Each structure stands twice: as structure tokens, then as C-alpha cells.
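Re: the request from the purification team.
They wanted to know what the chain is likely to look like in 3D before they choose a buffer screen. I agreed to run a prediction and write the result into the notebook, where they can find it.
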Amino acid sequence: MSHESRLFLFLLGAAACGDATPTAPREGPTEPGAIRVEIVTLGSALDPDGYTVVLDSSGPRSLGIHDSLTLNDLSEGPHSVRLGDLASTCEINGSNPYRVTVDAGQLTLVPFQVICQPPGELVVTISTSGTSADSDGYRLTLSRTQDVVVELPSNGSVAVPDLAPGLWAVEVTEVASQCLLIGPSQVRVDSAASSALRIDVHCTTPSTLGRIRVTVSTTAILATLPSSYRLLLDGNPVDTIPSNGAVTLTDVPAGIHRVHLDVLPGYCGAWFFSPPLSQDVVVTAGSSVAVRFSVLCLG
């Protein structure tokens, strides 16, 4: 073989090697992870039948009050672990459900600390006063991990037993509209003791009177602007009102009334396409109704 032939074969082999593309190695299947649930229970009023653990949406598994459980073959990523079937005297110190991220091939710890204490009693004392008392009583809702609903008399005391120790939200409903409720929004219940909650309600006679707010605007064209007009209610003079101003008629009995604006001098009258100078209004007890007049004075 000549020198030129050997050189040609050498260059051909080098070009072939340069065009070769390396193949990436294939990844194997992800190794599953695991969660280890550990339960520690503190206190004196222990839950004798233990608890249940639910992983994501799977079925419950039982655990004792001092116990552990390993959940294997879990996919990589976020998971949720919930502890359930706690006695009414027990609560979890921390998050429930416990949210955790599982890494491939790793064991992740999920600890639960449960505190169990003897229940307490709450004595609710309620007093209603005023001229128009609410006689049919009230409804008390105590809220914590669950709601406790208690029917209350208008006056007296009610004992609510077997409440879990801690802070409870307080809501009193079915209070008449003419009554004002005075009481706390929260109450603390002590373990193995009697705690107190006082609620006061003051009621007043419902109002049968309302108000009428009358507003007047006057435009004078080549005429003298009047200083005021006379205001009549149901045909009776009740007040004077500035030609550009407002007055409020108070203590008006609830019902239908006619408000009339007595406009003098004679060259003044209602604006074109504006409300007439006599208007009927409906007065509602405890509220205010508005009446507007527009007056035009032409010289």
C-alpha cells in the first residue's frame, strides 16, 4: 500500500470517529420513599383506644397513644398525614393534617404530640334588662374544634359540662333588634375546674317614630330670591325652610304623610318637569326619608 493510500484511510477513520455522537445513559426507576409517624401523648385524661392515621386519601390505620408506624413505598413529592379519632379531652399540639415532602429513597419523620386533660365546666350567667325585654331567651354557640350549642333563658344561669380546656369562641344569637348584647367574644375553660361567662342584654322600647329630611333648591331669573318658605306636614305648618337649604322633621309617626312647600311670592313655583310642591312619603320607624323640591322664580 502506498503512502497516499495509508493517509487516505487514516483521514477517513478520523472523520468517522468525529461524527460519532455519545449516547446518554438511561435513568432507572425512582426509588420509593417512606414516612415514619411517631405519637407522643401527654396529660392525665388519656385516650384509651388510641388514634387513627390517614395518609392522603387512603384508609385509616390504628396507633396507640405512644406508638409509631412506618408508611413505605411512597412516591416522591408532597403528602398529607392526618391524626384522627381523638377523645374530646385531647387535642394536637401542632398542625393536623401534617404536610410533608417525601424524597426518593429517604425516610421522613412526622411527629404528633397529643395533650389530654380532664374536661372543665362553664357556668353561663345571663341578665336581661330594659323596658322591652326579650322574653324568649337566646342561643349560645361555643366554638373550638367543634361547636357546642346551648339554649339560654332571658335571665338565669346554665352550666355547660365536659368542655375541653382552652379558649372557646362565644356567639350569642336570637337577640331581638331592640336589644344590645354586652359580653366577651371568647372565654377560657380551665381543666377540672368551673369557669364563668357573664352576658348582659339591655333592651329598649322599639321606636315608632321616623324623620323626614326636606331639601329645597331655588333658581331666580330676573326676580328677587325669597329668603325662605313655609313647610307643611299633613296640612299643618311645622317649620320654615331656606329657599336654598334643608331641614329635618323629627318625631314623625310611622306611616304615609304629605309634605307641602308653601311658596310665596306668587311668581315662584315648581320647576318644569320637577316634583310637585306637595309630595306623599312613607315614614318608617327609626329611619329617615328624603324629600326634594326644586323652585323657579321668574320676574
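For the purification team: Helices lie at 3-19.
Please add any questions underneath this entry.
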